[in-house]
Amino acid sequence: MAPAAFQEYKTYTQKVKSLQIYPKKKPLVRIGICTDLHQDLIKDGEKRLQSFITEMNQAKPDFIIQMGDFCIPKEKNKNLMEIWNQFTGPKYHVIGNHDTDGGFTHDQVVDFWSAKGKYYSFDTNGYHFVVLNGNERPEGDTSKGYPRSINAAQIKWMKQDLEATSLPTIVFCHQGIDNDQDGLKEGALIRLIFERVNQKAGFHKVQFVFSGHHHEDYHNIYNGTNYVQINSISYQFTHPVKGYDFAHTKEPLWALLTIHTNGTAEIKGRKSEYMGQEASQNDPEYNGYPNVPYISDRVIKV
Ligand SMILES: [Fe+2]
């Protein structure tokens, strides 16, 4: 091949490659994700949620989901729900540990949000989605503090639900299933169940697990499953372990997940900076995940 023709061929193949990463074809599925609004702990929750909903009504993903620590089921939060319900497409909820603050029950939260259930699954555009409730208190547990558990009945339901579907699956849980330090206590067991479900299926059926709760920004891969932590729409902590002071971001943070027909998943995250007080850098003795005012952009092959 003559050098000029070879160059032309090289440019052409590069173009084809780039088209494969960002194909012009309609994506399989697009999802708007936000988490940890903490309406009851901050002053500008409605404004932050309104920004998310306004943009989602323009972007028109297949559905939106909030991953917990949204709002307690109290009359004063009806305005917030009206903002949430302005989204014209399907809307899903994950329960967070703060959503029952003040003594509310999970059922009251589900009713107030008009959520599909405490834990449930659904299909959209050839994908299966599983929403878990990581806030169950183990039987006989009298300890104080927030539970971060999934009890045997829910684990059994989840296992049967995952085995029953032949579709690639995305799991949502408020607490990190890959974070054994302060995430879901049954994390190791659930990761093992995902691994066995994948082995039985003969492909990576459980492709993604999304979580919030930790107000951090990271991506881990365990046995081929991608665990992605989505940062809070509102704030990070000024102390990584004990800190109850908040470092608010100037702009609200959220992510748009797009899964293309060629098996490439693209996460586009919003970026901001701190309003006044900075979030602390993580204590090296702690988990070491970054405390940052943004959600990273990621391209992940699935
Ligand atoms: Fe939380």
Automatic annotation (TrEMBL):
It comes from the Bacteria. Coiled coil: none annotated. InterPro entries: Calcineurin-like_PHP_lpxH, Metallo-depent_PP-like, STPP_CPPED1. GO terms for molecular function: hydrolase activity. Gene3D superfamilies: 3.60.21.10. Residues 30-233 form the Calcineurin-like phosphoesterase domain. Belongs to the metallophosphoesterase superfamily. YfcE family. This is Alkaline phosphatase. It comes from Pedobacter ginsengisoli.
